[in-house]
Amino acid sequence: ALPIYVNAGGRTKAATVTHGIILLLSVALVARYLNYIPLAALAGVLLMVGYKLARISLFKSMYKLGWEQFLPFIVTIVAILFTNFLNGIAIGMALAIFFILRKNYRHSYHQTREQTGEGETITIKLSEEVTFLNKGSIQAKLEELPDGCTVIIDGSKSVNIDYDVLEIIQDFRNHSAPHRNIRVGTIGIKEVDVMGH
Fold it and tell me: How are beta strands 109-116 and 119-126 bridged, if at all?
């Protein structure tokens, strides 16, 4: 169906919608006649469509994007071939979500260090979106700061900082840092009402 559609000159969004409507009407009105189509003919159409959609250049371009893009792509294809379409897509999406969450967890902040006359100054710039998933990595970073340093936590570029993250920053500034002689400065980090939460 797709090669015929493309060869007939289908290029626009309107053509795509028209093609979808024709397929929907065919399934709704002549479903029993579709069973008369030989499976070998359907397999041939699927192989042709699959070949045109999964070109070698597509595999090469996905590989160049890195393993975080390439692995879900390959796993999705393999899962579709060995299970079915819906299961394959679900497996591929689950793996893609895993990579997205892992990347988000690892890249929740950017750190710079600078030596000054008063000692070491560490600036922690939070990313644009800081969710509860980033709580563990930020807490670990704060705990590994050297005693006696100055730390600046910069949230000025953040669009959203989760309450849990704000809570650990405030707790660090008010309780942990004074005991370790760490001077804490914040930019764009709002106060939270820990007692009222």
Answer: antiparallel
